[in-house]
Write a structure and sequence with these properties.
alpha/beta, seven-stranded mixed beta sheet, 13 helices, 26% helix, binds adenosine-5'-triphosphate, binds magnesium ion
């Protein structure tokens, strides 16, 4: 994988929504080679979808839509040992959530098992396949290496009738797992290892989520994929680069079988993101070994995790559009993804106030027992979002970080003797700092200027700082979950010991206070906690205890990096 990190203008070339895949499709349509464009998104239901899959989903559904065709959702369910109904359900939920609809075009490779089997028999009768009795280990050894040719199997020249008989008995369940396989008879000396008599069928006694125990043999990916494309009338089979070396086998199958249509495979670069692992094997291990709380843990790059974290689907689609589709592998800066999330949320999220690390503040000259309701704008750039009332009283909470006892020069927030604006409320001046026995600041005593209601002084005096606050008696307690990157390295290992790169501080929980209006928001729809970032209510919230996830902070590290480079 190339380690070059894509910069800000990576998507520029595809700004108009064009890329080499769309060029190919356009040319096929213009030349009349293809009338109705059909694509497919083919997940294996052995895990949840992640943001890499989103690239493939947006490409396949996007191309079909732009050319007036359609995109099938096809489950590549050829390995029951690893596939589960939970994953099938999650994949459908996540594709829909991302904004795509396959309509009636839902397929499973298992829908085609009977036809695939028939084609395998056709190949046997044509002398193009054979049943091999070698063990998996022998097959592996005899396959050769990149520099050495493979060796023919001793079973390669088995007579057609014997092959047919054995293959039928494999299907009937007469042999245990691994006893025999069906292999294509292509070329054990091929420079492309995928063509050294690839395995087309293996014995597997396992319960399949859809076909139960009806089948004792299952087709390989290579034998199922192209033929499924052909059955479904797929015209452009778009997959990631690792399948480039499989294309000759894809074509071999299509050319040697009487399939109903002629699909073609094209490869594009998979999405790789800094600080992120997109290998299903690693993601499965993270869940299984309890490194995260589940597939939808907001630290996970899964669509379910991003949804729970509050990332809107339009932000994912925007990101995918920006990065474009290319033929060379690259590593995309996760900052680009964050850019899309901030852009979307800045436009859509309603503003609220929350204090993440509360510090008590008492306004000595504000009458005890007095309560005011002040107007606060729900969105600074969108008047139609309206306003809400926020309660103001003598005892407030502010952010610990918004006070410094001995501030440096450019600190414009609260300090002894300093005056600041409380957002939507009044100017206040800090008169006294109270500490506990340990010397920690526990309370600030302030005065307010009643003439500054709404945030402006009639005498024209200015304050530099505006801070947010809550009325102590009216604020609701909430656990706020702050998520940090799951991995500490920009290019974490996806190998055996990937846990070495796990960030031990990927989750912090704060005992925060929030304004009551936050409960209006739906779970997973983020609001902006002013000056703190975007947050959404988590499904773990109870009437007794709110729980919020930080979707993303406000700080635009991306813009900063851009300015530096
Ligand atoms: P694995 O992690 O084992 O390689 P996979 O992610 O390829 O599995 P599939 O269910 O086979 O899992 O993926 C479905 C489709 O999504 C495939 O066409 C695959 O090419 C595509 N896809 C998977 N990962 C990415 C990625 N990071 N970027 C773009 N497309 C991807
Ligand atoms: Mg795959």
């Amino acid at each position: 994988m190339a380690a070059e990190v894509k910069g800000a203008d990576a998507g520029a070339a595809t700004e108009a929504g064009r890329d080499f895949i769309r060029d190919i499709v356009r040319a096929d349509v213009d030349a009349g080679r293809v009338k109705n464009v059909v694509t497919r998104f083919p997940p294996e239901p052995n895990g949840y979808l992640h943001i890499g899959h989103a690239k493939s989903i947006c490409l396949n559904f996007g191309v079909a839509d732009e050319f007036g065709g359609h995109c099938n959702l096809r489950f590549d369910d050829t390995n029951p040992a690893k596939e589960e109904q939970e994953y099938i359900d999650a994949i459908m939920r996540d594709v829909r959530w991302l904004g795509f609809d396959w309509g009636k075009n839902l397929f499973h490779a298992s829908d085609h098992f009977e036809r695939l089997y028939g084609w395998a028999e056709d190949l046997i009768r044509a002398g193009k396949t054979y049943v091999d009795d070698q063990s998996q280990e022998q097959i592996r050894i005899n396959r050769g290496t990149l520099t050495e040719p493979g060796k023919n199997s001793p079973y390669r020249d088995r007579p057609v009738d014997d092959n047919l008989d054995l293959f039928r008995r494999m299907r009937a369940g007469e042999f245990p797992n691994g006893a025999r396989v069906l292999r294509a008879k292509i070329d054990m000396a091929s420079g492309n290892i995928n063509l050294r008599d690839p395995v087309l069928y293996r014995i597997l006694h396992a319960s399949h989520p859809r076909t139960g125990t009806a089948w004792k043999i299952y087709p390989s990916y290579d034998f199922a994929h192209g033929q499924s494309d052909a059955i479904e009338g797929v015209t452009h089979s778009l997959c990631t680069l690792e399948f480039e070396d499989h294309r000759p086998l894809y074509d071999w199958c299509i050319e040697n079988l009487s399939v109903p249509s002629r699909p073609r495979q094209y490869e594009f670069a998979r999405l790789n993101l800094t600080y992120t692992v997109l290998s299903k094997r690693v993601l499965t291990t993270l869940v299984r070994d309890g490194h995260v709380k589940g597939w939808d843990d907001p630290r996970m790059p899964t669509l379910a995790g991003l949804r729970r974290r509050g990332v809107p689907p339009e932000a994912i689609r925007d990101f995918i559009k920006r990065i474009g589709v290319a033929k060379a592998n690259s590593l995309v800066d996760v900052g680009m993804f964050e850019f899309s999330v901030r852009e979307t949320l800045n436009r859509t999220a309603l503003r609220r106030m929350a204090v993440l690390k509360p510090l008590k503040l008492v306004i000595d000259n504000y009458p005890e027992g007095q309560l005011e309701e002040l107007d606060a704008a729900n969105h600074p750039d969108d008047a139609t979002a309206g306003t809400r009332k926020v309660k103001f009283s003598r005892e407030l909470l502010i952010e610990q970080d918004d006070f410094m006892e001995s501030p440096p020069k450019k600190f414009f927030r609260l300090a002894p003797g300093a005056e600041v604006r409380l957002r939507y409320a009044y100017f206040i001046t800090c008169r006294e700092v109270k500490k506990n026995a340990a010397g920690e600041i526990v309370e600030l005593r302030c005065t307010y200027d009643p003439a500054t209601k709404g945030g402006n002084a009639p005498d024209g005096r200015k304050v530099k700082g505006t801070i947010h606050w809550l009325s102590a008696a009216h604020a609701l307690p909430a656990d706020v979950r702050i998520y940090n990157p799951l991995f500490t390295k920009p290019d974490p290992s996806a190998g055996e010991n990937f846990t070495a790169d796990l960030n031990p501080n990927s989750l912090e929980i704060l005992d925060a206070r929030v304004e009551p209006a936050v409960t209006d928001a739906t779970v997973e729809v983020p609001v902006q906690f002013e000056r703190n970032g975007y947050f959404c209510r988590d499904q773990d919230s109870t009437p007794m205890r709110l729980v919020f996830n930080r979707t993303i902070g406000l700080r635009d590290t991306w813009a900063k990096e851009k300015a530096v480079s």
